[in-house]
Amino acid sequence: MCWAAVYSPRRTANGHPREELSAPMPEGLKTLTRYTIEEEHRHPGSSGEFSALVNVVATATKIIANQVTRGAIVGSLGAHEADNLPATVHRRMDAIANDIMVGETQWTGHLSALLSEELPQVHPVPDTHRRGKYLLAFDPLDGSSNIDVNLPVGTIFSVLRTPGETGGAATEQDFLQPGERQVCAGFTLYGPATMLVLTTGSGVDGFTLDREIGAFVLTHPRMRIPDDTSGFAINAANERFWERPVRRYVHECLDGTEGPRGRDFNMRWVASLVADTFHILTRGGVYLYPHDTRSPGRVSLLYGANPIAFIVEQAGGAATTGHERVLEVRPDRVHQRVPLIFGSRNEVERIERYHREPEEGPSFDSSLFGTRSLFRPLK
């Protein structure tokens, strides 16, 4: 077997961060650093800042992965009941992940400001650091409530261009851009393997963290979501709060071969946006976190729905709020939340059509004899 050269300097000759390899890498595997540099070379005149930023974010997620897999060793878990967790325990790993993302990215000179789910306000890059032309919005630990039961969690991130002049302090208004203006989006899934899924607007690629060499390597090139599916993901316990079009769609799926869809569907729900997204990217399906009577939206727009929608569309799927394309939503505040439905294109378009005809479909009367009688009909 042929082996690639082993190298250890922290940066390449042109300043790119470089993986530190502790073991030889099999010939043919492409690291994330090589991938981003090759992509940069396809765009003459590029400065290298963007590819360097992507590698810095990837490094931060590798550190988070290490902390997540150590669990109670780093003090993120306790022997408390889930409903009685002290705030310091319940939020500890979220805070750790947030500190890592901020600490690893703000000094690089690529960013003007950061927006995190864990911070109430935009975090401008300090005056002591050089400011760049990009904005980074992220959820440092999506699905963090899953940690106590050892289920998958992840990090979601979105990169935008700073609309003002480079070097100035960014404001909240700078982040209020529709998702179609993203220059990059991705997420890292901390599961049995640590996976990084990335798009820069020309398709979606997946990378797996090879812990022997300490680098992400390309393992899932050109990920595609099939147009059709027989699977959906939703928290069925919330049915009483759903709007009629969502109830119609889910009931038709549950009716299986005897219903109007004429086939059986599978239902799953991980309670981790990144885990369900990765499943849809690899197996197909549709994910619903819809509008309900308690809240108009549950998923953060800027660092949740937008990056996921960008990835999904680049993989051939579709993403909607039920009433409009997610990437066209005009944000009005940095922590805005929206409904989110995404996945296989034909199913998403069906759900959108149901929202345009909300009075169509069967009755959902929940009274005792609302749908069937106590007596058999006369023949």
Automatic annotation (TrEMBL):
Its cofactor is Mg(2+). Pathway: Carbohydrate biosynthesis. Residues 30-221 form the Fructose-1-6-bisphosphatase class I N-terminal domain. Keywords: Calvin cycle, Carbohydrate metabolism, Cytoplasm, Hydrolase, Magnesium, Metal-binding. It catalyses: beta-D-fructose 1,6-bisphosphate + H2O = beta-D-fructose 6-phosphate + phosphate. It comes from the Bacteria. It is found in: Cytoplasm. InterPro entries: FBPase_C_dom, FBPase_class-1, FBPase_N, FBPtase. Belongs to the FBPase class 1 family. Residues 225-355 form the Fructose-1-6-bisphosphatase class 1 C-terminal domain. Its EC number is 3.1.3.11. The keyword Glycosyltransferase does not apply. The gene is fbp. Pfam families: FBPase (PF00316), FBPase_C (PF18913). One of its GO terms (molecular function) is metal ion binding. It is an enzyme of class 3 (hydrolase). This is Fructose-1,6-bisphosphatase class 1. Its main location: cytoplasm. One of its GO terms (biological process) is fructose metabolic process. Substrate binds at D142, G143, S144, S145, N235, Y287, L288, Y289.
